[in-house]
Amino acid sequence: METPPGADVAARLLEAAGGEQEAAAEEEAARRAGHQPEEEAARRAGHQPEPAEDAAAAAPSGGPCPAAAAPSARARRGCSAKAAPAAARASRRKKGSTAAPGPRPRPRRAPRPVTVDSSKARTSLEALKLSLRQLRWKEFPFGRRLPCDIYWHAVSFHDNAIYSGQVNKFPGMTEMVRKITLSRAMRTMQELFPEEYNFYPRSWILPEELAIFFAEVHMIRDTRPSWRPTFIVKPDGGCQGDGIYLIKDPGDIRMTGTLQTRPAVVQEYMSKPLLIDKLKFDIRLYVLLKSLDPLEIYIAKDGLCRFCTEPYQEPTLKNLHRVFMHLTNYSLNVHSGNFVHSDSVNTGSKQTFSSILDRLSAKGVDVRKVWSDIISLVIKTVIAMVPDLKVYYQSDIPTGKPGPSCFQILGFDILLMKNLKPILLEVNANPSMKIEHEKEVSPGVIEYIPSPVDEEVKVAVIRDTLRLVDPHKKKKEEKLNSKISNSGFSMAAADILYIDITRRGSGSLSMDQRDTGMGLQAFVEAVCFLAQRRYKSLSLHEQVELLVDFCEFNLAAWDERRLSCSRAVPERRMALVTCQQDGLHLSPATPTPPQFHSTTAHKLVNYRSPRP
After folding, report:
1. How far apart, in Å, are the Cα atoms of 510 and each of 39, 382, 427, 596?
2. Peptide bond into 207 cis (omega under 30)
3. Alpha-carbon gap, residue 432 to 410, rounded angstroms
4. How confident is the model at residue 558 (pLDDT cuts 50, 70, 90)?
5. What pTM, to 2 d.p., does this model score?
6. Which helix H or strand E contains 10, and what residues bound it?
7. Which of 87, 308, 438, 526 would you label with 29, given CA atoms 20 to 30 Å apart?
8. Which pLDDT value is given to residue 514?
9. DSSP β-bridge partners for residue 298
10. Cα atoms in the Cβ-side hemisphere of radius 13 Å centred on 594
11. Could you report how far apart the first and last alpha carbons of the chain are, in Å?
């Protein structure tokens, strides 16, 4: 069949048109994928590509494209598409233009918000919600199947089974801050460093030390007839002022059966506190324990001052029962008719600590010194607690096994004496974070009223705590730590004195082995370490000999003290920490060798604690 004239030309035109459509489709696909054709890139760079020469013109007259006599659409498209980029590149090289820009950067994704499980928050839920809202973090009030970044518990580490993330409780903290356990830890540090730990009242544990308590009190009375102390009895597991009472004579202790089932601590009552408007008050300070190893402590810049609701008088037999005069517990005084709920942070029965400092500063008080003493008290108290806390921590979260990291907000109750010396009353593992108070509007009907002073302090504490433990941020380098004295005896030295099951060769301890003490190697290392720290510029042999002599001297004094207490005969004046009118005072039994006296005060150093 003969081809009509012009049919071959029409077929070629149609084939060329189809090829151009395919090329346009491929260019569009490349553009969507983030790539640009070189002609488009040259145009965006400010250069016009030179037009490519026609393939037919480049060939001999009437001849085909050099690629083939009867080229296909793909071959013809390649011929024209390759010539133009080559000319464009040549033009750019001639004009000295820069290289074409690369692929367009993809838009950054918004950072994933921090997730917080608040299903166990309980009474701190409202303050936690406000803090999360300010931080724009994501809350899961009913829990979550997937792991969360932070778990907020109300009572203890074991409120929920946690295997990752962070939890706001340390294992064993509730047991550690009980009155008997804390008193034992503080007594140990008082025996080692009496001048550094004289901010904690002398304590006796009942009923096991009842006979010692009787003997020591009678001994002091015989040597100091003018001494008329008052004692305060606190149940070991008590809270919110429950079961606390005052006595003037050791024989007034309530010797009922509850003392056996509910042990207690008896302390010398601080009878000369600082008064404001004739009212006694204490300070609730919030402390964040962020890490045990290395030790990281953060102290809130503001706290709460809780006032008694009756004018203070020194304790007598007639007013010992007046709890609204002597006890500062909010849970007790809130039931007094004189309690004042205020909308201001500097008036009422609960005020901010910063407002009290402002009032003291206006009277000429050196508030920087007050703050420095309080910070020192907090750090030394935590140091006394750390060794036992490490044992609890390693028991629940052994090294090498998966588990969460921990942090915790502690409530320190501190009393300022008349001479502005801070005295530690107790430490709370679960300080109240409620930001409202109850009001009975009608019989049996309770309404919750917002408390501005609580909200201002507690929401800031929780919010700043969350910022510090934010898993999306790098750890800050500046930490708070303390040296106990200028002798160089740091927290590491106190830490090594106790059980540390993470040390070499010790492995993990069972519950039955927890009270067996440190291993021989750790003990020898501790002795050498203490000797080198205490007696410098001597040989190690001489240092250890001096340390052993010092220990034997103290052991002899303690044995004689126990013997005299058991006989209840005042044979010799013992070493006691007594509370005189101007605060705590140490009365040594016998002159201590001069080389064992420490005449330097403590230092507060802003650096991360060294690992032991």
Report:
1. 76, 25, 28, 38
2. yes
3. 10
4. confident
5. 0.64
6. helix 7-32
7. 87
8. 42
9. 288
10. 0
11. 101
